[in-house]
């Protein structure tokens, strides 16, 4: 029976593990960049464009892209530290990231809360923006809510993704330690935690005045994060390009569309009322399997199907994403690819900024109205801003002040 000694046996963890990728995969940055644009649209209040985001056409949405790609990025950024420096240094590296994400969450909350309060204090609006985010409890009785905010026992709905990400990151040292016993120890533990999460035993309280739980249960969502992590570490081999798998994935996506959102269902209801009646009968049965809070099974299968098709389309090492011609179309595509990938590379900065900007863009739409032109301009301004933030964050990370030139 294997015994585990303290630090020495964890340095390095699993020396025989498959060599991790040491450079960023263009597919990772591209798809995570796409997710950032979708997340912005999804969080602009009453944005008509949100009617056409992927969430309206299936079980999974941009959240799954963000979490899965974050797992892959973490495998590059943190997984290597465990292998090169050992378990303790790897844990320290993850802890520093947790510290960064924690304060990003706190700052995001206070900025948005301040902005909504300033709008209400201005007296220019009939509606109350504080109540639109259900923040009246915070302003009516701030002392206990500040304590709850810093201890993550007060997690308002709009601010629930980063806390989930924090808990998932905190689980990484445990899984890296388990990998010393083999990949199946990691897989079995992750699946077991996910299964328990489906019973609601691991729900976390979101506010003290009700029984509402965290909207994103990290113990359910960790399955997707560590799936991406395992793929990027090489613990799970890349799936083959198979016509059978392509058709299976495509058919699952197509047939799940009416159950993922009523957007597609309304079309079916108009075209085939009898079929719509049958779907209505099945709809309640699928509730637990499409649950977003605990990350239901259908969401997992739906995203894996979508990710597989995206992987096939991009080609090996993402070679199909890279323009090869010299024409105008190739140059435009290469420019777009570069911009989208930059947004994906700076996802934390972009995400935090977009969550704050989305509320203010919504205020602009409240003032201008939501006609086609106003909505187009508002979304384009939002896109331009998150692109600017991505390039600015990259510039700061390059530390130009240290340049010898």
UniProtKB/TrEMBL annotation:
The keyword Membrane applies. Keywords: Membrane, Transmembrane, Transmembrane helix. Pfam families: OpgC_C (PF10129). The chain crosses the membrane at residues 30-45, 65-83, 103-125, 145-169, 181-199, 219-236, 245-265, 297-314, 335-361, 373-396. This is OpgC protein. It comes from Ruegeria atlantica.
């Amino acid at each position: 029976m294997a015994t585990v000694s303290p630090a020495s046996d964890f340095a390095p963890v699993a020396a025989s593990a498959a060599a991790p990728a040491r450079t960023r995969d263009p597919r990772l940055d591209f798809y995570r960049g796409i997710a950032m644009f979708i997340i912005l649209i999804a969080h602009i209040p009453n944005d008509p464009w949100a009617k056409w985001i992927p969430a309206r056409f299936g079980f999974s949405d941009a959240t799954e892209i963000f979490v899965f790609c974050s797992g892959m990025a973490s495998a590059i950024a943190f997984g290597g530290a465990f292998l090169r420096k050992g378990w303790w240094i790897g844990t320290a590296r993850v802890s520093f990231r947790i510290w960064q994400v924690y304060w990003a969450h706190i700052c995001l909350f206070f900025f948005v809360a301040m902005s909504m309060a300033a709008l209400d204090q201005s007296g220019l609006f009939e509606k109350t923006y504080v109540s639109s985010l259900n923040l009246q409890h915070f302003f009516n009785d701030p002392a206990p809510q500040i304590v709850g905010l810093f201890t993550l026992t007060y997690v308002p709905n709009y601010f629930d993704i980063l806390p989930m990400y924090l808990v998932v990151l905190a689980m990484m040292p445990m899984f890296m330690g388990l990998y010393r016993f083999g990949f199946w120890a990691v897989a079995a533990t992750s699946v077991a935690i996910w299964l328990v999460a489906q019973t609601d035993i691991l729900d976390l309280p979101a506010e003290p005045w009700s029984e509402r739980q965290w909207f994103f249960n990290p113990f359910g969502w960790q399955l997707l994060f560590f799936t991406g992590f395992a793929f990027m570490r090489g613990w799970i081999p890349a799936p083959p390009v198979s016509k059978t798998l392509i058709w299976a994935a495509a058919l699952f996506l197509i047939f799940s569309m009416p159950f993922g959102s009523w957007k597609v269902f309304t079309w079916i209801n108009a075209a085939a009322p009898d079929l719509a009646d049958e779907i209505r009968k099945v709809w309640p049965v699928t509730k637990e399997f499409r649950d977003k809070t605990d990350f239901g099974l259908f969401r997992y299968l739906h995203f894996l199907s979508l990710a597989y098709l995206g992987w096939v389309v991009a080609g090996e090492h993402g070679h199909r994403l890279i323009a090869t011609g010299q024409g105008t179309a190739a140059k435009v595509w290469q420019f777009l690819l570069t911009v989208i990938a930059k947004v994906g590379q700076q996802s934390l900065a972009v995400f935090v900024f977009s969550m704050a900007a989305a509320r203010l863009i919504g205020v602009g739409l409240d003032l201008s109205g939501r006609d086609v032109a106003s909505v187009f301009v508002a979304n384009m301004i939002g896109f331009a801003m998150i692109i600017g933030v991505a390039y600015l964050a990259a510039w700061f990370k390059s530390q130009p002040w240290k340049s010898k030139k």
